[in-house]
Write a structure and sequence with these properties.
Number of domains: 1
Shape: globular
Structural class: alpha+beta
Strand order of the largest sheet: 2-1-5
Number of strands: 5
Helix content: 25-40%
Strand content: 15-25%
Number of helices: 3
Distance between the termini: 25 Å
Largest sheet: 3 strands, mixed
Radius of gyration: 14 Å
Length: about 100
């Protein structure tokens, strides 16, 4: 299953150094597909862009990011409202990222 998730991440355009993180994210959401890999990559890239704009010295450090994903259905909209946030927040003794998801 891990090899399958890695292949999906790579086919979704995830660079080699982020494949393991994207794989963890897909497993945490129980969604092994290219769209989920792209969602992780988009959130990661936005986070990196903001961190670089702030000229944070840690911007060059490649560390896994935690994520928060919310998907809300709205009767008046054709598509759900989606919020996907990447956070610089590592927990536990091994400093692993956490992935929180709220979906219908």
């Amino acid at each position: 299953m891990n090899l399958h998730a890695r292949n999906i991440a790579i086919s979704g355009g995830v660079p080699t150094h982020l494949v393991e993180e994207a794989t963890r994210f897909m497993r945490s959401r129980s969604k092994m597909n290219v769209d989920t890999a792209k969602a992780y990559l988009q959130a990661h890239n936005l986070f990196e862009l903001i961190r670089l704009e702030e000229k944070d010295t840690a911007a060059t450090v490649k560390q896994p990011l935690s994520t928060f994903y919310v998907e809300l259905e709205c009767e008046t909209l054709d598509e759900p409202i989606i919020l996907h946030v990447a956070l610089d927040c590592l927990v536990g003794p091994d400093h692993q990222p956490i992935h929180l998801t709220i979906e219908p």
